[in-house]
Amino acid sequence: MLDEKTIEIVQATAPVLKEHSKEIGKRFYKLLFEKAPNLYNVFNQTNQKRGLQQEALGYAVYAAGEHITNLDAIKPVIERIAQKHRAIGITADQYPVVGETLLQAVKDVLGDTATDEIIEAWGKAYGYIADAFIELEKKLYEETESQPGGWEGYRNFIVDKKVKESDEVTSFYLKPEDEKAIATNKAGQYLTVKVNVPGEKYTHIRHYSLSEAPGKDYYRISVKREDEHDTSPEGIVSNYLHRTIQTGDLLPFSAPAGDFVLQHDDLPVVLISGGIGITPLFCMLQSLVKEQVKQSITFIHSTRNSKTHAFREDVKQLATDNGNVTSLVCYNSPTEEDKASKDFDKEGHIDLNFLKLNVATQNANFYLCGSIPFMDAIIKALQEWGVPKERIHYESFSPVAILGDE
């Protein structure tokens, strides 16, 4: 355990680190990649260039310092990060260089304000926090590898087929090259792929939500092609998968991971997705139907229009076949054909009034996935409605994953 003096210093200086979190994050990654350039193969370079990874690091450091005497208070943050670390293969021996670099970044940014006493205190705190992560990640590695069909590291999968789901989204059906059993996943989890894109110096790693209910002898991921960002790093992997990877090709994946999973109780379920955020929620919907749960399920999806609407007919069919399932669609830019067919429920965005009109009770489990602004707006609406935060669950495709003052 940490001594009282260390705790006092860390908690007193955590707000200062928060104030300078972006600068510390930028300095940290610059130093880290100079010391260990091989880590370019691990960290998402797109998020680096957009500044998202740096912002996420700053938040995590500040939150850990603020709650240093009770890390359970930020358990969702720790669990989320640990799941990502397990998925990409972070190991215990990588923590020391990260700690040394973080302390150097704090010293560089804060200058004389970061006294030797403060740096020493944060060094102790980092060791304490790192031990918590290492212990949790060790447990995750052991559970993953020992489960039926589980595996260590990355395993090659054959693209069994590609299916176009919308103008932007394509599904990839994946079967193990070794033809052995695969680990089951929980609805809402993701697979992590590692690709070497021609012309790119380093490996790119991405997480993609599984879009089909567990229990098959294959996995399915559904990937949005980021066409509007073809000239920037954002679309590198999605375009590579869409345009280059064909049926019969091999891709290496780590075992399913993620803490965004269904709560098993009797409360009604409300699934709210925006754009490509439909993937984990559609998986959840299929899983709930497969389990023949009795509670009501409301599936609300928001996207531009029918051209960008993946799984539209699949969700509609599940609602038709199951009396406890209601499907609602919001188009913020419906086409003329959409307007003529009236095959959607609201033009515009999901708001509190729409939720109140279409969700019978706020005493439900709400699951959200979409862009950060989308989820932030929905969470604020739910909080205004009086939904307690423990009933609001979300998956973020961004490393800046803390919403609604969690």
TrEMBL record:
Catalysed reactions, as listed in the record: 2 nitric oxide + NADH + 2 O2 = 2 nitrate + NAD(+) + H(+); 2 nitric oxide + NADPH + 2 O2 = 2 nitrate + NADP(+) + H(+)
User: What's the record's note on cofactor binding?
Assistant: Binds 1 FAD per subunit.
Amino acids binding FAD:
Y190
Q: Where does NADP(+) bind?
A: G275, I276, G277, I278, T279, P280
Site described as Involved in heme-bound ligand stabilization and O-O bond activation, positions? Y29
EC code(s) of this entry: 1.14.12.17
Where along the sequence does the record put site: Influences the redox potential of the prosthetic heme and FAD groups?
K84, E395
* Annotated binding of heme b, by residue: H85
Which cofactor(s) are needed, names only?
FAD; heme b
Give the region (Reductase) as residue ranges.
149-406
| PROSITE patterns with a match to the protein in the record | FAD_FR, GLOBIN
One Gene Ontology molecular-function label:
oxygen carrier activity
Catalytic residues in the record: Y95, E137
Keywords from the named record? Detoxification, FAD, Flavoprotein, Heme, Iron, Metal-binding, NAD, NADP, Oxidoreductase, Oxygen transport, Transport
Q: Which residues form the Globin domain?
A: 1-138
UniProt domain FAD-binding FR-type: residue ranges:
152-263
Q: Name one GO biological process term.
A: nitric oxide catabolic process
Function recorded in the entry: Is involved in NO detoxification in an aerobic process, termed nitric oxide dioxygenase (NOD) reaction that utilizes O(2) and NAD(P)H to convert NO to nitrate, which protects the bacterium from various noxious nitrogen compounds. Therefore, plays a central role in the inducible response to nitrosative stress.
Which family does the similarity line name?
In the C-terminal section; belongs to the flavoprotein pyridine nucleotide cytochrome reductase family.
| Domain text | Consists of two distinct domains; an N-terminal heme-containing oxygen-binding domain and a C-terminal reductase domain with binding sites for FAD and NAD(P)H.
**What name appears for this protein in its UniProt entry?**
Flavohemoprotein
The beginning of the lineage is: Bacteria, Bacillati, Bacillota, Bacilli, Bacillales
The record's gene field reads: hmpA
